[in-house]
Amino acid sequence: MAPSSLSYNADANDDKTSPNKPQDRDPSTSRSSSKRKLTTTHLLVLSFLIQVGLLLYANHIDNHPERYGGLKYTDVDWIVVSDGAKLIFNPDEEDGNIARGWLMRYLGLKIGDPYERATFRYTPLLPLLISPSLFHPLLGRLLLVLISLSISPLLLSLPTSDLTFTFTSAQTSSAVYASGSRSLSTIASPSSSLPQPFAQRARSQCSFWSVHLLWTLNPFVLNITTRGSPESIICLLVIVLLVALRKGREIQAAIWLGLAVSWKIYPAIYVPAIWSFLARPGSRRESKPTSAQQYSGGDRDHGGWLGWRVWRFGTVAGVTFGVVNGILWAIWGQPFLEHTYLYHLTRQDHRHNFSPYFYPIYLSFYNSANHNTSIIPALNTPSTSTPTPTPMTGSVVSDLISRIVRNPLTSFLPQLSLVLLSGFGLESATRPATTEPTEIGKGSSNLEFAMFVQTAAFVVFNKVCTSQYFMWFLPLLPPILSSLTSLSLSRRKIAILVGSWVIAQAVWLATAYQLELMGRSVYLAVWAGGLSLFGVSIWVLGELIDAFGAAVVEQRSARVANGVNGVREKVE
């Protein structure tokens, strides 16, 4: 009789071998491992060659934009950062291109100021990193390509996920969830369990292909990286942070978090998830604390919301952030704080983007200068840089709406609520019902999923949303896919979710092309496309959360069933 469920419990200790089996290493395992490494190398080399080809193609398009309808391949952000690098290494006091920090005045050194370049809103570390582009434009972008490729091996090195990896036939899945229950003996019976080596191999293959298809060979990632967008750098910092946490290297993880927030502000959203992860009891102890330790508080590895691990992590991360930014402020002074951090707190971008706030901000942007006018452009008139104002009634109401839209709290409060809820709630969703010590990196925490939901929610609800922002949550997707069981998320459902999201984005891009390159005033159509993408993104995110919840239920049911069967065997 065919098994109804094939599962591998990732909480089990994989290193322990059965006394009835030889402990010599299986040669076939070595050959399989060698083949896997070789295949990974092949895919990384293939991705590198594709991106080199794209860089050469980009150089051709940029030199002959008239042949491609005025389009250029290189991202404008790359041009801005490259100009910033030129300014740093070519100071000119007469033109005002000089670092204004007290340290430069004290030491008598002259370094250029990248903030002299209009729209430069990055950390000065970025132009310093891509400075090889000053020797040749392709060198800096090749560095970004290598940084992007380094993320794949890190994702593959993540420890085994916490959730049970379960295979279930579609018919059985429907029956189980239709009935709402399943026999505990059926879940954990030996006849329905997949032997660990085969389950490990199946999960390994799932992780392997999800990493390479969603990141290494993803056309979207290849395009964004070769256009010169530096998002792969912050993605690398976040993944290194995640790997360090999952492997129990908490001090290193704290340093990486401080560096990541110094690079971009948004990784600060992971604090709730990390805090909940560190507060989980029993995730670091190798043995139970003695009664004396419990009485004196000597069990420093014990969790707790204000435990030693939380304080240590927060202190190291805060000191790292303070030291890095203190040095940068001492060199570049107040412009560094204004453009790198303060600007983003009150940023108002009226240019078209995916955000649902785009059109209201667009209207309010010009209303502030024309209090008695409205700027709702006709849909079939040529687009101009400054829309022609038309008379408007109810200016008081319009001013009130404009102030609400332009207030940073309008978009920040929904973001903050979702980040806190997903960080504290989802990370704790798989917390074990026991405080028994567990292996480092295995526990019942699902830090990856919490961080993914936090990032996706932050991007979707942000007041400014561009294609580059989608790269922030993409590398967090492969680690969670193997934890979402086919019991709740079939291949067909995955195809529908991905297809809907891609189609919604394509619709927006088509209307944005008409606005930007064809000069048509289709602002409302662009906004409608953005609202559609917003709705689809929320739907996809909700489906993933539901699938995650189903995987958690399956995991807990399997644990209960294993306990019941264990007691039954002892009684018999």
From TrEMBL:
Keyword Endoplasmic reticulum belongs to the record: yes
Stretches with biased composition (Polar residues): 1-10
InterPro entries, per database record: PIG-M (IPR007704)
Presence of the UniProt keyword Endoplasmic reticulum in the record: yes
Regions that span the bilayer: 38-58, 134-156, 232-248, 254-278, 310-332, 494-515, 521-541
GO CC terms in record: endoplasmic reticulum membrane; glycosylphosphatidylinositol-mannosyltransferase I complex
Single GO MF descriptor: GPI mannosyltransferase activity
Pathway annotation from the record: Glycolipid biosynthesis; glycosylphosphatidylinositol-anchor biosynthesis
Membrane topology category: Multi-pass membrane protein
Chain coiled-coil ranges: none
Positions with biased composition (Basic and acidic residues): 13-28
EC number: 2.4.1.-
Subcellular location: Endoplasmic reticulum membrane
Highest taxon of source: Eukaryota
Protein keywords: Endoplasmic reticulum, Glycosyltransferase, GPI-anchor biosynthesis, Membrane, Transferase, Transmembrane, Transmembrane helix
GO biological process assignments: GPI anchor biosynthetic process
Region (Disordered) residue spans: 1-35
Physiological role: Mannosyltransferase involved in glycosylphosphatidylinositol-anchor biosynthesis. Transfers the first alpha-1,4-mannose to GlcN-acyl-PI during GPI precursor assembly. Required for cell wall integrity.
Family of the protein in this entry: Belongs to the PIGM family.
Name the record gives this protein: GPI mannosyltransferase 1
Organism: Kwoniella heveanensis BCC8398
